[in-house]
Each structure stands twice: as C-alpha cells, then as structure tokens.
Amino acid sequence: MNDQISARAGYLDHARVGPLSRPAADALAAAAALAVRVDPADLDRLFVLGDEARASAARLLGALPHEIALAPSTSNGLFTVAAALRAPGTLLVPRGEFPANLYPWLRFAGRGGPAVRLVDPDRGRHITPDLLRRHLTPDVTALTVSAVDSLTGFVAPLAALKEVLGPGRLLIVDGIQGLGAVPLEADAADILVSGGQKWLRAGWGAALLLIRDRCAGHLASGLGGWAGVTEPFAARHPAPPLPGAAAHLATNPDFTAAAALGAALDDLVEQGGPAAVGARIRTTLAELLDRVRRAGADVLMDGIGPYERAGIASFRLPGHDPGAVHRALEAAGVITTRRDEWIRLSPHASTPSAAADLLAGALHTLTHRTPHPRQEPTCPTH
C-alpha cells in the first residue's frame, strides 16, 4: 500500500490527520480542474461526483443511496442530527467521549432536543452492553457513541449496544476513528457520521452522513435548507423535503472534497476493504506496542483483546515528562499526538516496518540517556 504522497516512516498520527492518498489527491486535482473551466458540462460532472461519492459510501455501509448525504465535517454532521432530533426524553453520552460528540447534544438540549445524561463507564472511557442496560430508563430515547475511542482505540460493540437499545431507540455513531481503519458493525447504527481526513486519507471538506429510513420518524427538518427540498427554485416556499438524509442539508456539499472522499472510499475497497486494511493496521500497531513495552512503557488498557482495539493505542514512559517524550520522538522523526500524560500511536496500513525501529531507537535514547555530571560552582576571577 504505497500510495501515500509523502510517506514518512515515522508518521504515526493517522488518528489526527491522515496524509492524502494518491487516489484522493488525483481526484481532488481533477475536480478542481473542472471547477476552473466552469463549462456547463464540467459543472454537471462536479454534481455527479457528489452522487458517486454517496453511492460508494452506501455500498461500504450497506445502506441505500438516499440514506447518505454529504456534510462538511463530522462535527457539522453531528450538529445537523442534534438540530433534527426532536424526540422528547434523554440521550445518553459516555463520559470521556471526544467533545465533538458531546457539544452538539448539549447545545440543543433545552432547545427542542433531548436532555443529555453523561454515563460513567465501568472501565476507562467505554460503555458496555451491561452498563447500558443498567442506565436504560424509560425516558432514554437514544445513545451516542464513538465507533472507536480516540485515545484507547477501543472498538465499541455497536451490534450489542443496538440490541440492548431495541428498535425504538436510536444508536448514533461518530465513526471517524473507525471508518477505514477497522470493520464497523455499521448495520447497527441508525445514524452514522464520519469525515474523511483521518483513516480514509481524503482530506477535509466532506463527511458521510448516514440516516437510515428506519429512524426518519425521530427527526424533524432541523437545519434542512434550500438544498434539502424537492423544488428549491419553486415560486412558493416552503417546498416538500427531499427523501432520506438529503432533507437535512443546509446547502450543497463541497464537490471537490466529495470527489476526494469518493476516490478514497473506492480505494479502500480496492485495497481489500476494511477487514484487510484493518488487519494490516493492527499488525503494525502490535509491533509498535511490543517495542514500547520493551522500553518499559505502560500501555493504556493493555489488557483488551487484539480485536477490541482498532488502529489506536496510547502509552506513557514512567519517570519521564510526557512533553519531553513527545518532543524527543518528534526530533527523532516519530510523529505522534500527546494527550495529557499519554502518547498516542496511530499507524496505517501504509506505515513501513522501519517505523518500529525508529520508535524503538528514540525510546532507547530516552531511557538510556546519560545524565550530565553536576558542575561545581567556580569562584569568579578578577
């Protein structure tokens, strides 16, 4: 998988930003060229690129094409859903969720949206089916959860969570840390949102917004604007909403970004799909974790099984300042993210084997650094 434009052996930060893949970059450039020419046929082609991206997403997620819309970002998609979710009751959010999956619900609580109840997980940051069952009071109408935790890499058991919720309650999924990195139980999600700038390596500007037909009755028009109605140029408004997820669009998507996203989705399938790509990512991550353990590091949630973790893991080096560790790794060419005391690793299938040697070498330097001898003060001379 050697299609990255600027592959760096030590780039282990795909959970933050995935460098554009070659297919995505080529599609972005081709779409930009269409926008430059502004010939009517070229503009029509731009619109078709958006439809093709939606169709690719539908195939990947096992959805109908009209159940997919393109939002500008994951956060925008979650806010779109929060604005539309007018069902009374309570929405559960695991404490420790990435804030992008918290603030939309907080902002619309009391403005027609459900109340928000934070749930303290049993272990770490994750909600289990048993824990959900204990919190499933009659007022609960929905649960929102990350498909993959952004710090630990824990893969949420979406199918088991949906089984506990039942058909009358919604499972809303922030999928950005999972889509493209690991197979997701997408069938269980009533609503799923995911941008393309991380594991899909598609850049910014386009995100998938999946709203399945089975939950349409839970949603009002929300942020749906002129692009979400059947006759946007009718003489009289309001016009009827479009069927499916498109009813919630405020305006047209960024078609150049949609082209890159569509190419990235197609490339994922060509590389063997999420299962094959995810297996390569997990193998690489396992080798990296082996190196950090040899260096004496603590791995966050080290006891979880290999298939409970996606492409993310975090470690700390006892006795060493985490800021100093992060800076030393970067100086050695190992690019990671620091979250408080933890250093996060997130390789891709394209990460070369040399990354493990780079990481091991940098950690060895840190743990075997000879302290400077203490300098005795000298008397000033005149």
Provide a descriptive summary of the structure in words.
The chain is 35% helix and 13% strand. The chain has a 7-stranded mixed beta sheet with strand order 1-7-6-5-4-2-3, sandwiched between helices. The chain starts with 21 loop residues before the first helix and ends in a 15-residue tail after the last helix. It folds into 2 domains: 22-270, Type I PLP-dependent aspartate aminotransferase-like (Major domain) (Aspartate Aminotransferase, domain 2); 274-366, Alpha-Beta Complex (Aspartate Aminotransferase, domain 1). The chain is globular and about 75 Å long. By secondary structure, it is an alpha/beta fold.
Please tell me how large the radius of gyration is.
Answer: 23 Å
Strand order of the largest sheet: 1-7-6-5-4-2-3
At the fold tier of CATH, the topology name of the largest domain is Aspartate Aminotransferase, domain 2
Low-confidence stretches: 370-382
Total count of helical runs of at least 4 residues: 10
H/E series: HHEHEHEHEHEEEHHEEHEEH
* Major sheet characteristics: 7 strands, mixed
Distance between the termini: 68 Å
Under the CATH scheme, the architecture of the largest domain is: 3-Layer(aba) Sandwich
